[in-house]
Design a protein that fits this description.
Helix 2 (32-42) packs parallel to helix 3 (58-65), helix 3 packs parallel to helix 4 (84-92) and helix 7 crosses helix 10 (197-206). This protein has 2 domains: 2-120, Rossmann fold, CATH 3.40.50; 146-206, Orthogonal Bundle (Arc Repressor Mutant, subunit A), CATH 1.10.10. The protein has helices spanning 7-18, 32-42, 58-65, 84-92, 104-115, 124-133, 152-162, 167-174, 178-192, 197-206, and strands at 2-3, 28-29, 46-50, 73-78, 97-99. By secondary structure, the chain is α/β, with parallel strands linked by helices. Strands 2-1-3-4-5 form a 5-stranded parallel β-sheet, sandwiched between helices. The chain contains 10 helices and 5 strands; from the N terminus they run E-H-E-H-E-H-E-H-E-H-H-H-H-H-H. The N and C termini lie far apart (37 Å).
């Protein structure tokens, strides 16, 4: 589903997506309220979500849509690469974001990545946004909290995720296979009760494991 208050922009994104043999636009919405209703009716696998819209904005719509069952995944589209609303959208349940001027191939790649359950965290701009808008006063989790359930290796993988490394980069850094890294990632997400790498990164910043700038 494509959500944007500008009809020309919405049509452009829809045309790019519909031109792909494995992708189909099942609904379009011009504001957050319509997006919430249409998402429930059309049950899209993924929502391309604009943030700044009249009436209900994309932030509120993202929070409501990601609470639906089955839960669609949300990829936020923004004009600004440092927009506080985008960080809040990630906290609300979005699985990543792209700038609206992204190349069509980058947009399609992001859609496919997010649709498979991954999150878009690799671009430097995403790491910069998260580190900029993460709480300036970290709230350390208690020693007996969820983080204490992680093994030393899982804790290490969490730090690498929050630093913006891909699974392949983590594997190269640790000298293990990508499959092993995926196993560690799935295990730590389950133990921490997190949905994806975006939530893991936010937790790392907000608990003080990573300082703004990506430094452990």
């Amino acid at each position: 589903m494509v959500v944007d208050d500008q009809a020309v922009v919405r049509a452009g994104f829809a045309a790019i997506v519909d031109a792909e043999p494995d992708l189909t636009v099942v609904a379009e919405a011009a504001d957050g309220a319509s997006a919430v209703s249409l998402a429930e009716a059309a049950a899209p696998d993924l929502v391309l979500m604009d943030i700044r819209m009249p009436g209900m904005d994309g932030l509120t719509a993202t929070r409501l849509i990601t609470a639906q069952r089955p839960r669609p995944r949300v990829l936020v589209l923004t004009t600004f690469d440092l927009d506080a609303y985008v960080y809040e959208a990630l906290r609300a349940g979005a699985s990543g974001f792209l700038l609206k001027d992204a190349l069509p191939e980058d947009l399609l790649s992001a859609i496919r990545v997010v649709a498979t359950g991954e999150a878009i965290l690799a671009p430097t701009v995403t790491r910069r946004l998260i580190s900029t808008f993460a709480q300036h006063t970290p709230q350390p989790l208690p020693p007996t909290g969820p983080l204490s359930a992680l093994t030393p290796r899982e804790h290490e993988v969490l730090l690498h995720i929050a630093s913006g490394l891909t699974n392949a980069e983590i594997a190269a850094t640790l000298g293990v296979t990508t499959g092993t890294v995926k196993t560690h990632v799935n295990a730590l997400l389950t133990k921490l009760g997190l949905r994806d790498r975006v939530q893991a990164t936010i937790l790392a910043y907000e608990s003080g494991l990573i300082r703004p700038g990506g430094t452990p």
